[in-house]
Amino acid sequence: KNAAVTILDDVAAGSGDDDAALRRRLMILLEGRTVLFGTSHLNVAAEFEHSVELDQGRVVRVDGRDPAAG
Fold first, then answer.
1. What is the spatial distance between Cα 7 and Cα 36, in angstroms, rounded to a whole number?
2. pLDDT 10s digit of each residue in the chain, 70 long?
3. What is the pLDDT of residue 63?
4. Can you tell me the distance from the alpha carbon of 62 to that of 53, in angstroms, rounded to the nearest whole number?
5. Between the CA atoms of 56, 68, 66 and 39, what dihedral angle is there, to the nearest 10 degrees?
6. Nearest alpha carbon to residue 63 among 44, 53, 54
7. What span, in angstroms and rounded, lies between the C-alpha atoms of 66 and 17?
8. 35 with 25: CB under 8 angstroms?
9. pLDDT at 55
10. Taking the model in full, what pTM does it have?
11. How far is 37 from 42, CA to CA, in rounded Å?
């Protein structure tokens, strides 16, 4: 399907070479689309154009910056 938003939760979210290669392929396939990619690895989140870090359901960082800092 040609979904407007794709949600991937912990799919290829590991730090190994195989997971990294799969993420690169997914990025190519989903280019131009909105993707919500869930991961508990900050280094994996950093590979994406934008990232939002949550702690107990609260936003603590957006694109590596503290949102409370302005």
1. 5
2. 677 888 988 877 777 889 889 888 988 988 888 888 888 888 888 888 889 998 999 999 998 777 777 6
3. 86
4. 6
5. 30
6. 53
7. 30
8. no
9. 92
10. 0.69
11. 12
Residue type, 31: E
Residue 24 — φ and ψ, nearest 5°?
-60, -40
Question: What pLDDT sits at residue 1?
Answer: 66
Q: Give DSSP secondary structure letters for 4-38.
A: SEEEEESTT-SSSHHHHHHHHHHHHHTTTSEEEEE
Tokens of residue 50, six digits:
């934008």
Please give the Cα distance from 62 to 1 (Å, whole number): 30
Q: In the numeric block, which tokens belong to residue 69? A: 């800092």
